[in-house]
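Supplementary Methods, section 5.1.

A reviewer requested that the exact input to the structure prediction be made available. We therefore reproduce it here, unchanged from the version used in the analyses.
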Amino acid sequence: MARPGRRILALLIDFAFCYVIYFAFFFDNPWASSLIFFIEQVVLMITLGGGLGHLLLGLRVVRLNGSYAGWWRPILRTVLLMLVVPAVIWDSDQRGLHDVFSGTVLVKR
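The structure derived from this sequence is encoded token-by-token as follows.
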């Protein structure tokens, strides 16, 4: 499993990427940054196994058994991540509640 430091850095990379797009193209819409983050996370997680930050740091999101996360788990995981609270509450395995509830785990590639 990925350590908290790498996970937080991956999230910060994703935020930075989304804010660059937001400030370049959608600065007048306050909801655009959230929508950009949602689309980036879901599309890249479904197709490549993780968001931009995950991919740059050699991480991927999988089911607990190590298989492909599918399409609904990344959507649920991202919605919960955007609520923030589940992401800052970890279980004994250091999985955020967004991962626990979506049945996923973030691992090294």
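Helices lie at 4-25, 32-48, 52-56, 72-82, 85-88, 97-102. These observations are discussed further in the main text.
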